[in-house]
């Protein structure tokens, strides 16, 4: 396999704060330094980009000394926390902005999709916008003409194609916009989180199309997403960025597990809003699934899930039992309890485990609600505590005889 | 550690700096369909959801010359024997083209930051498309001018068209390059410092009075010889004068004035392109 992208010592600095008279004098100083062939005096004092701490200078390195190569036909996910430099990297790769230092070498045509529907004009019809958007993304008119029917077909908005797009629903708008982008013919495709919009059926269709693209046509795909499920489904390899630096470039499983383990701080429930009369007596401290506390965890359907909950009780609660709610798309699936009858809870630390069998949960996104009350199975509770979205995770798509896609419904049960 | 053979393999290299005069004209040529579609967008969206459609292109110059004729009559300003509407229209359409090119180009980065911040295409396409779509408006207004010219020729039985009219394409080219050059200079500066945008918004309408739209140059020479330099230094003056001379037989065919205008255009266009090229790489970060 040959390399199609080579990134060498890539760095990008941004200036923070407002532009005013202060920046003019500094611009002049920089210009003067450049004239004398000296280094830019203001880039030396830059520091790493950690948005949570207040830095000393107002220059920040959004990317710092990034090096990596990407082979032809590879699909690479780029992951990292907000502000890690993912979008900046994509912007530099797609030539929207240029690096402060370092270089990127590319082989073949690059198409980037940092946003769907870039340049759509509300007054123009769907048809006119397909042409305009296609041309903005780098297609020739003849090429768009050839693929026009295919694009309209993919979008499923045929009836509205001669209506101005300002009258489209937002879903139709996105469908049409993505349909154009999906038909780009380029060797390298760069995709930012554009799939966050659109309904789940269309998202699946887009992911499928992108998958086809990389496997079928030998295209290289770079993909940024916060949805670890789609990253895992789509990508072979992944790059992990943190504070503008590259931490790992390895297989997607390896990188994801490193990422999920790295952000331990995210797992703490102490800052969560505890609702209910018991809130000042009981504190939930940690919720982990298969020992992963990060709330962007992704599991395969074949994994048995072990949910472990740590909580602390500060005074004696006469009657209490823990409950754990499973939600899928805000729909309550089921509730689990730690005991069948409420019992006295002494002041102490507790840990409870719940096990969910493999293949029970169908692919999708789940959230867990955590709480407890003094009610037993035949009476309502009066004393209670609850926290929302204590945990969230995704189950990936994975075909298996135990996980047949043609089976429908919320959960997956097999008669024995 | 790349040897030369490896170097030739790559189709593109993105680095921190590029040469000042690298206009990426090959890229621009590749994106020529985009240029066409952007011009189409500008023209079509201008009269979408209107009943009269392209007729509105005529409205602005017609109303302007009606007002000018009224004021000109009132103030008794000479037009050198040319019928007032024809005289004013000649100046107005040239000036409008220049002013539209300048003001639209001067805000090109700001107006399109959403688009330019999300996708790469040769940035030069954007100002070029503005020049081209304004050219279409200009052409429509020119038709109005020709109709008026034919009408007055029949009325007076006197044909004013002469050999100088052949210079027309060159005059348009100069005026377009002027608008583009000044506009690109301003747009480049305003990506970081917005101050100049204010100067443009009140300055351009005022500049109307420093060129020969409302009065002939000869009138300035006779009445205010001491201040004639103000009008002469306006690079649009020479273009309007030569345009009127060719089509209406009135005006000053002063070659020095035209040479000044051409020199000004070259300097401005050259500087505009260099600065634009420099800014276009990073403006997304500051606009």
From TrEMBL, chain B:
Record GO biological process: lipopolysaccharide transport
Transmembrane parts of this sequence: 50-71, 86-103, 124-151, 163-186, 198-217, 255-276
UniProt entry tagged with the keyword tRNA-binding: no
Keywords from the named record: Cell inner membrane, Cell membrane, Membrane, Transmembrane, Transmembrane helix, Transport
Domain of life: Bacteria
InterPro entries: ABC2_TM (IPR013525), ABC2_TM_bact-type (IPR047817)
Main localisation: membrane
GO molecular function: ABC-type transporter activity
Keyword flag Transmembrane: yes
Compartment list: Cell inner membrane; Cell membrane
Any matching Pfam family: ABC2_membrane
Domain ABC transmembrane type-2 positions: 52-279
Membrane topology label: Multi-pass membrane protein
Record-given protein name: Transport permease protein
Native species: Mucilaginibacter myungsuensis
Gene Ontology cellular component list: plasma membrane
Family: Belongs to the ABC-2 integral membrane protein family.
């Amino acid at each position: 396999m040959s390399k199609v992208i080579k990134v060498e010592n890539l760095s990008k600095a941004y200036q923070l704060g407002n532009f005013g008279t202060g920046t003019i004098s500094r611009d002049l100083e920089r210009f003067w330094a450049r004239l004398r062939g000296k280094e830019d005096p203001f880039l030396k004092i830059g520091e790493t980009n950690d948005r949570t701490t207040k830095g000393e200078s107002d220059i920040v390195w959004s990317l710092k000394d990034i090096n990596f190569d990407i082979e032809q036909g590879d699909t690479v996910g780029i992951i990292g926390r907000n502000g890690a430099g993912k979008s900046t990297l994509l912007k530099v790769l797609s030539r929207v902005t240029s690096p402060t230092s370092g270089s990127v070498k590319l082989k073949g045509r690059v198409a980037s999709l940092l946003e769907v529907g870039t340049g759509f004009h509300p007054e123009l019809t769907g048809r006119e916008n397909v042409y305009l958007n296609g041309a903005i993304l780098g297609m020739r008119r003849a090429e768009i003409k050839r693929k026009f029917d295919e694009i309209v077909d993919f979008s499923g908005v045929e009836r509205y194609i001669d209506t101005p797009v300002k009258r489209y629903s937002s879903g139709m708008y996105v469908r049409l916009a993505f349909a154009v982008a999906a038909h780009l013919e380029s060797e390298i495709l760069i995709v930012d989180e554009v799939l966050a919009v659109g309904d789940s059926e269309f998202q699946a269709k887009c992911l499928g199309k992108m998958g086809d693209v990389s496997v079928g046509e030998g295209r290289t795909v770079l993909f940024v997403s916060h949805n670890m499920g789609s990253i895992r489904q789509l990508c072979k390899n992944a790059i992990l960025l943190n504070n503008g630096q590259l931490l790992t470039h390895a297989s997607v499983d390896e990188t994801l597990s490193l990422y999920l383990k790295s952000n331990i701080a995210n797992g703490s429930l102490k800052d969560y809003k505890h609702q209910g009369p018991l809130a000042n007596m009981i504190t939930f401290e940690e919720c982990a699934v298969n020992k992963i506390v990060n709330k962007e965890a992704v599991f395969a359907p074949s994994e048995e899930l072990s949910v472990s909950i740590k909580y602390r009780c500060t005074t004696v609660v006469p009657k209490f039992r823990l409950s754990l709610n499973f939600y899928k798309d805000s729909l309550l699936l089921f509730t689990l309890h730690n005991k069948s009858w409420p019992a006295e809870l002494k002041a102490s630390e507790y840990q409870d485990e719940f096990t969910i069998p493999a293949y029970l949960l169908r692919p999708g996104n789940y959230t867990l609600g955590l709480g407890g009350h003094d009610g037993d199975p035949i009476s309502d509770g009066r004393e209670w505590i609850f926290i929302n979205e204590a945990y969230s995770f995704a189950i990936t798509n994975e075909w298996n005889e135990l996980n047949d896609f043609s089976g429908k419904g919320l959960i997956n049960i097999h008669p024995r | 550690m790349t040897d030369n053979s490896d170097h030739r393999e790559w189709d593109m290299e993105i680095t921190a700096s590029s040469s000042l005069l690298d206009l990426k004209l090959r890229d621009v040529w590749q994106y020529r369909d985009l240029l066409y579609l952007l011009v189409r967008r500008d023209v079509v969206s201008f009269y979408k959801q209107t009943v009269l459609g392209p007729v509105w292109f005529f409205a602005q110059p017609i109303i302007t010359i009606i007002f000018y004729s009224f004021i000109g009559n009132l103030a008794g300003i000479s037009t050198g024997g040319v019928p007032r509407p024809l005289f004013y229209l000649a100046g107005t359409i040239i000036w409008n083209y220049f002013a539209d090119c300048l003001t639209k180009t001067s805000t090109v980065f700001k107006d399109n930051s959403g688009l330019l911040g999300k996708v790469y295409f040769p940035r030069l396409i954007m100002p070029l498309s503005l020049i081209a779509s304004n050219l279409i408006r200009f052409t429509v207004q020119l038709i109005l001018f020709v109709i008026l010219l034919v009408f007055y020729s029949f009325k007076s039985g006197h044909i004013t068209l002469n050999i100088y009219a052949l210079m027309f394409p060159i005059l348009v080219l100069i005026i377009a390059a002027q608008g583009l050059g000044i506009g690109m200079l301003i747009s480049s500066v305003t990506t970081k410092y917005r101050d100049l945008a204010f100067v443009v918004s009140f300055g351009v309408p005022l500049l109307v009075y420093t060129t020969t739209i409302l009065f002939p140059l000869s009138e300035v020479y006779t009445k205010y010889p001491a201040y004639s330099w103000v009008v002469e230094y306006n690079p649009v003056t020479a273009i309007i004068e030569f345009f009127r001379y060719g089509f209406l037989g009135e005006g000053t065919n002063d070659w020095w004035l035209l040479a000044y205008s051409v020199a000004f255009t070259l300097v401005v266009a050259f500087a505009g392109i260099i600065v634009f090229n420099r800014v276009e790489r990073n403006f997304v970060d500051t606009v």
